Amino acid sequence: MEEANTISAIKNGETALGIELGSTRIKSVLINKDYEVVATGFFNWENRYENELWTYHLNDAVKGLQCSFQSLVEDVYKRYGIELSTVGCIGISGMMHGIIALDENNNQLSPFLTWRNTNTSQAVEELTDLFNFNIPLRWTIAQLYQSILNKESHVKDINYVSTLSGYIHLLLSGKRVIGIGEASGMFPIDSEMLDFDQEMVNKFDSVLSEKRMNYSLRDIFPKVIVAGKLAGKLTEEGAKILDVRGILKPGIPMVAPEGDAGTGMIATNSVAPRTGNVSAGTSIFSMVVLEKRLSRLYKDIDMVTTPDGRPVAMVHCNNGTSELDQWFSIFKEFAESIGCKANTSQIYDAMYYASLNGSPSCDDVIFFNYLSGEPITGLMEGHPLLVRKSNGRFNFANFMRSQIYSIFAALSIGTEILIEENVSIDKLTGHGGMFKTKGVAQRYLSAAMNAPVTVMENAGEGGPFGMALLAAFYLWGKENQGLEDFLETEVFSKTVRSTIMATKDDIAGFKQYMERYLALINVEKAVVESFKLKEKR
Questions:
Q1: Strand 275-280 vs strand 427-431: parallel, antiparallel, or unpaired?
Q2: Is 534 a residue whose pLDDT tops 80?
Q3: CB–CB of 407/284 below 8 Å?
Q4: d(Cα 299, Cα 204) in Å, to the nearest integer?
Q5: Residue 226 pLDDT class (50, 70, 90 cuts)
């Protein structure tokens, strides 16, 4: 779209805004009717580890939301010389799972628990048995039930339970609703009814009654809404919260809040059966849209949905790129200490491209990137660990290749289950910042999954772009047009893509790496136990 037309579109509100509260960054993306990104905004934040739990303070979330939107406003003015006063539709996304418990006045009752917490083992065991359905440690229902089992004082006063995206949507619109993709990480979904599974709701309500809770699940959970539907409007109070300038107009339509898994599927055009995507960030997960449900319960596979309700097999790993990012900081600090000035992209590119000179098996240099627990490998806590053979080739290339391999290692373990279930994947797309360096992480992911991997030219935009597209689907989707058709024919028909299939040597090397990785997992467990003993002393 020409600049004059873009300026006109921004002035007239012919745009869609997606804001995603990710693990390390709150990002805002504004798109036009050609589905082009016309402006962006950022705010960096970090989780806190308090009282042995991972959390964010909700006032930090609101501040970050405001700063990210203000950054977007400044970008609009810098690019086009106009003040942003309205948009066509707004969508809020956030880290999937977790729990925020509120009272009847929407006051916070307990710390916000994120997806990263693994303290719900008892709840998970009981609920998985009750439902005959895998309930992961990080799901909202697991965290709610664990707090009930713990007899925490706040549970009797709970009036509403939601996720981070649902909470922000409530602040802006006053509506207690949730997108079906995000809802599927709160409680099991019936993909036929496009709602929480009523049979399981009934079972949980019986448990609540036994525990003498004065509410049912539907009393305290949000209403489920599918993609393309109106989910409220920006209130006057919400406009003042989002825009500290006081310029943004209220009354803007809002779509249902979604999780980062769902927005990642949108951003990679992976909502059709037999398609999948891998999202790499603080955590890493794959999402494969199924033609039919899996034959049985698997504790390493989460059953969730697309934003329009189709069943999805999700392999979620708690540890993604965070450890690699910390090594980036070390190398940047070293470079600066010897007088070398390099920007972020240059250092990351140097790290990634150096790995291509490493051995396909990393010559027995093995990393465990566990900043937190990793349920797939049976660890409720984690500590980063490097193990290497004393006579192996320990050089920068193998060091970096092993670092990147470690990001995909746990993911590949869960993927083996899908292979055993004969799940077909016609297209697998990678997205997230680590795919910006062309042909590196994409190649190693292909080796880990033994499948071709596609990366789109907007690989670094990720979830906020996907959330903006969900807002655009409400605005510009044709009557009776499905989400799959909208994305394929309207949004991504002209998108530039690159596809890589790993070589046989890469695949064999990654397999050899994983054999050593699994053989050494007890070393990681021993390290975790040793730290526990030290803390007890």
A1: parallel
A2: no
A3: yes
A4: 20
A5: very high
3-state secondary structure 80-120: HCCCCCCCCEEEEEECCCCEEEECCCCCECCCCECCCCCCC
Do 252 and 258 contact (CB within 8 A), yes or no? no
What does pTM read for this prediction?
A: 0.84
- Strand partners for 277: 287, 429
Q: DSSP H helical segments within 300-394, as ranges?
A: 322-337, 344-355
DSSP of 210-275: HTT-S--HHHHSPEEE-TTSEEEE--HHHHHHH-TTS-SPS--EEEPPEEHHHHHHHHTT--STTE
Under 8 Å between Cβ of 433 and 463: no
User: 125: Cβ–Cβ under 8 A, 6 or more apart, which residues?
Assistant: none
pLDDT value of position 419:
85
- Could you give the CA distance from residue 530 to residue 155 in angstroms, rounded to a whole number? 35
pLDDT number for residue 39: 97
Tell me the residue type at 498: S
Quick count: other Cβ atoms within 10 Å of Cβ 525?
A: 16
Question: Taking a C-beta distance cutoff of 8 angstroms, is the pair 23, 47 a contact?
Answer: yes
Range with lowest mean pLDDT among 165-174, 225-234, 333-342: 333-342
Please return the burial class of 40, using the count of CB atoms within 10 Å of its CB with bins 0-12, 13-18 and 19+. Answer: middle
Neighbours of 36 (CB within 10 A): 11
- CA–CA distance from 482 to each of 60, 292, 313, 473, 513 (Å)? 37, 19, 21, 9, 42
What residue ranges define each of the domains in the chain, with the CATH number in brackets? Answer: 3-260 (3.30.420.40), 322-413+503-536 (no CATH)
On whether the CB atoms of residues 324 and 348 are closer than 8 A, the answer is no
Q: Model confidence at 367, in pLDDT bands (50, 70, 90)? A: very high
pLDDT digits (tens, 9 = 90+) for 346-361: 999 999 999 999 999 9
pLDDT value at residue 20: 97
Q: Residue 168: CB partners within 8 Å, gap ≥ 6?
A: 19, 21, 61, 62, 65, 92, 94, 257
Each residue of 412-458: pLDDT tens digit? 998 888 888 988 888 899 988 888 898 999 999 999 998 899 998 75
Specify burial of residue 441 (Cβ count, 10 A radius: 0-12, 13-18, 19+).
buried
**CB-neighbour burial class of residue 340 (10 A; exposed 0-12, middle 13-18, buried 19+):** exposed
Residue 350 burial by Cβ neighbours in a 10 Å radius (0-12, 13-18, 19+): middle
- With CA atoms as reference, report the closest residue to 92 among 115, 69, 108: 69
Nearest to 375 by CA among 319, 436, 450: 319
- As given in the structure block, the two tokens for residue 287 are 């999402």
